[in-house]
Amino acid sequence: MLFENEKIYPDCSVITRKIEVGGLTKSQLIQKLQQYYILINEYGERLLAHDKFTTSGKKYNLQTVELTVGNLGFPIGATTAQIFKKANELGLELCPLELGPYLRLEYLDQPEGYSGNSLQRHQAPSGSITISSGILSEDVEFPKGFYLRKIKGELWLRGYRADHLHVWNHDDHFIFCQTKA
């Protein structure tokens, strides 16, 4: 199905958020996630535990933009590399990996993403929002980044794996940084 009339960023509908990031150590950040009853899957835990996952001791603000793969001009989907390249051409930036936990803590009213269907393998789950960030490891078995999801009323910070051949669907949601304040 082609979506010929779909508008492309920046002429499309997007969700923007201003998020304060930094100021906590890694252990303080994990403790805060636990305090808010944020659930984390195994891949998310592996990302948080990795030596290259760092947190800024200084607070800073990020302006984020949430849009779909289709909003980037891919009516039939695209690979991660294609999505990131096009976003960069449109003036969007990858997010620091530490944005994932901070955004999860700020976005507590995410709509329910559970559809009652079992998870579709090798696809982004219904209602999920993938945070666009650089990867920590080229190892295909290591998670590539975070996504946010609400399942049966519970908020999740989840890690995901996707190789360079994975094609994201037209309606998958991504978050990029618009400007660094």
TrEMBL record:
Query: Domain of life, per the record?
Result: Bacteria
ATP-binding in keyword set? yes
**Keywords (A to Z) from UniProt:** ATP-binding, Helicase, Hydrolase, Nucleotide-binding
For molecular function, the Gene Ontology terms on record are: helicase activity
- The answer on whether this UniProt entry bears the keyword ATP-binding reads yes
Stated name of the protein = Helicase
The organism named in the record is: Lederbergia citri
Q: What is the lineage of its organism?
A: Bacteria, Bacillati, Bacillota, Bacilli, Bacillales
